[in-house]
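INTERNAL AUDIT FORM
Audit reference: QA-55
Scope: verify that the stored structure record matches its stored sequence.
Auditor: D.O.
Record contents follow.
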Amino acid sequence: MDSLEQLRSIAQQCSAFDPIEKNILSSDVARKDGINCTMCTHYDGGKCRIKDEILTSMDQT
């Protein structure tokens, strides 16, 4: 399981990030804590190919 900090970092780097709700980016949570993978349509209970690719590239730097 990925930590919330990892999910935030991945979402910030993801060019395919697609918010699950139209106004989620202006929500109090997003303004306070930033975006994370759980706010994206591609995140299906942690099964996101894009997330895995970004996490792998982050591990190599």
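Auditor finding: record pair retrieved intact. The longest helix spans residues 49-59.
Action required: none
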